[in-house]
């Protein structure tokens, strides 16, 4: 008898999270000999508990699936919901009852660390009750901080977005050679500097911006920063600095926490700003020159305008590989990427025990950061460059990207 | 005897300012029967005074001109330099001596309000000294605030960028239906709300975001805003609000001026944040829900990732039209756009007296803003929609846009 599939999305969205959904749905529909229906969870496991799901074959009638492939954001909706540690909690039989009602034997969860925690718990619970349910995690995070995998889907497109914007802003700020300036660009990644490091890809020639790059993996010292900024201003009048939102000082305190510590607006509300805004004010006082800060913010995770064809293709393949793995009997695993070579870039797919992945974080290796702490090494660039290759055309209608809406 | 051309760029860059440069250079090189050399001013009139210029034919040897066409930012470098009001100032003969040294009879300045002021002064000075110099302004500003022209080159691409990002962010924030949220997007345009209004183009269906749009042309009242935000939250749990950086209250005070009025960081430096950050903190205190603010910042003026083919084409045509006009004997004029029809969209080119343009500002007509002050009307959309049509492929190399560098 045919069994059914359900797929969910969880955590922060990326530009290619729907690519993985597309890959899993397409592969599931292909296996019509063994798979009956392909369901999608609405708003992850949290929404599923409330009875929210849809039949994904609805999208197969027209070009919807093709548009889903390049639509950013979580099409099925997302959640931030942590299952209880105690597998004896009544929520587990509730969830499994719903799986049974829908004859679901395969569950795929697309997400990062927290989502892999859900995969771990559900697969372990399945064993305790002898359920045939197989659970596979499909990695997703722009932060690129999952262990056991060379990189994660979503990182390549975010890295391409960051490098593109930094290159464009560098052209913008270089227009005023007669007016020295510092532009601080704040990039996502609170604990891991992968995305901030990717800004180095923007450089086109020697002494090109960004001249300074600060990752959260090393200590951010304000006096060292001032000295390095001064040196950079001697190289070019218009300096662009890239910082991770999570840079910290020697005491481990986030730089952004210094911001607005005593600041309140006229209504008495405490004002919080980011690390970039804080450094902007600080360096303006110190150097007395034009300073600006730019927070790339959520566009870096949700824009399809700089889709990496490599990233999208791998996201799709990860979804498809997960379905094949589950059909082959695997469970409690996450799809992982194995880099076979840098040049030419070659990748293969594998699986790793999700229990080892869910509570760990992969940071940028310290020897991929230069000794002065304000740049990444060639090894970092060799790692990151293949992941941003290739452009993907997003269908447009009436001048704007023609996304699919649920 | 053949005479020479010089072209300069001034003010803030746009995604298509080099499109106009490309148009003027290409047209100048075509007229080899009457034009000798085509020069470019480095860093505008300020750099030219220091003797900085280049021969643009250098770019004609390979694909450089083609890459220039889609390279954002001011390729020649920019300046913010105001010529003295007194035409008797010694700077005028200095400039004209340099024009004469290079046998320049045609000067084209690509820029906004302030650049048109330079065009005005130089053309008026030319008359006083019976110089044959002809000066023509080529409009450029993402703010779209020049009078006597239907719109300005640079606005269409910036509007397309704003609408695209707002559509993508709207997908992003709509992922969490179970968590009500407000996202405030701050858009450029201190005195004119054209770009902020363009965010309305992002809507795909009824009740789609952005649900609220505030332009600087109307009074921003905080209590009205709270009431409208509350109403919007009843329509959808994840509300996206677009505001102009220049929204002001009934007293004419910029909302961003309320920010950090009493705020200092731990080093005692005054912290300044934008209107979006200010409203973020305010509405978080008031509503107690998740609130985020996003400042689109300089990417909206310098990114080539959302180039409007219509905008780029018009920017090129404006540059070419300026050259033809000067050759036909015109001076002291700015190229203007005349909209012949909305559907099908049709445009023609004309000239207007630059003296009438240089110190005026075109704002969004009040009857293009809804009576409740939180949206634009269908008339606005009919005006803006044609300007974002068509996509332009930017050549890429090694995963990133392959721009040209001076």
Task: Throw out a few tags for this protein.
alpha/beta; EC 2.7.1.90 (chains A, B); homodimer; 406 residues; metal-binding (chains A, B); 6-phosphofructokinase activity (chains A, B); ATP_PFK (chains A, B)
Task: Walk me through this protein's architecture.
Chains A, B: Its cofactor is Mg(2+). Chains A, B: It catalyses: beta-D-fructose 6-phosphate + diphosphate = beta-D-fructose 1,6-bisphosphate + phosphate + H(+). Chains A, B: It comes from Candidatus Onthocola gallistercoris. The structure is a homodimer. Chain A is α/β, with parallel strands linked by helices and about 400 residues long. Chain A contains 13 helices and 13 strands. In chain A, the strands form 3 sheets. Chain A has a 7-stranded mixed sheet with strand order 3-2-1-4-5-10-11, with helices on both faces. In chain A, strand 4, helix 5 and strand 5 form a beta-alpha-beta unit. In chain A, helix 1 crosses helix 11. About 0% of the residues of chain A have low confidence. Chains A and B meet through helix 6, helix 9, strand 9, helix 10 and strand 13 of A and helix 6, helix 9, strand 9, helix 10 and strand 13 of B.
């Amino acid at each position: 008898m045919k069994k059914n599939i359900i797929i969910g999305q969880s955590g922060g969205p990326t530009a290619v999270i729907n690519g993985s959904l597309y890959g899993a749905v397409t592969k599931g529909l292909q296996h019509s000999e063994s798979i009956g229906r392909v369901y999608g969870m609405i708003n992850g496991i949290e929404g599923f508990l409330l009875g929210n799901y849809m039949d994904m074959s609805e999208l197969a009638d027209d070009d919807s699936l093709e548009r889903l492939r390049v639509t950013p954001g979580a099409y099925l909706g997302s959640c931030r919901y942590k299952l209880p540690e105690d597998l004896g909690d009544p929520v587990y039989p509730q969830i499994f009852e719903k799986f049974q009602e829908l004859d679901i034997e395969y569950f795929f969860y697309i997400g990062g660390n927290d989502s892999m925690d859900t995969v771990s718990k559900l697969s372990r619970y399945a064993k305790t009750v002898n359920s045939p349910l197989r659970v596979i995690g499909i990695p997703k995070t722009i932060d690129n901080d999952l262990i056991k995998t060379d990189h994660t889907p979503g990182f390549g497109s975010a890295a391409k977005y960051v490098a593109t914007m930094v290159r464009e802003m560098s052209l913008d700020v270089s227009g005023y050679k007669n007016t020295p300036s510092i532009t601080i660009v704040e990039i996502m990644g609170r604990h891991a500097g992968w995305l901030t490091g990717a800004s180095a890809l923007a450089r086109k020639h020697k002494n090109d911006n960004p001249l300074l790059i600060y990752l959260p993996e090393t200590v951010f010292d304000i006096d060292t920063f001032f000295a390095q900024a001064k040196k950079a201003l001697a190289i070019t009048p218009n300096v662009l600095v890239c910082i991770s939102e999570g840079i910290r000082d020697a005491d481990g305190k986030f730089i952004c926490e210094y911001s607005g510590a005593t600041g309140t607006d006229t209504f008495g509300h405490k004002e919080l700003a980011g690390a970039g805004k804080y450094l902007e004010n600080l360096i303006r006082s110190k150097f007395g020159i034009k300073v600006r800060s730019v927070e790339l913010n959520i566009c870096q995770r949700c824009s399809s305008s700089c889709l990496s064809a490599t990233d999208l293709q791998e996201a799709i393949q990860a979804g498809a590989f997960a379905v094949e793995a589950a059909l082959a009997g695997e469970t409690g695993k996450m799809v992982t990427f194995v880099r076979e070579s840098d040049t030419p870039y070659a990748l293969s797919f594998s699986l790793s025990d999700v229990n080892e992945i869910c509570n760990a974080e992969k940071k940028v290796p310290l020897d991929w950061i230069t000794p002065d702490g304000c740049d990444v090494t060639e090894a970092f660039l060799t790692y990151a460059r293949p992941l941003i290759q290739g452009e993907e055309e997003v269908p447009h209608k009436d001048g704007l990207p023609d996304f699919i809406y649920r």
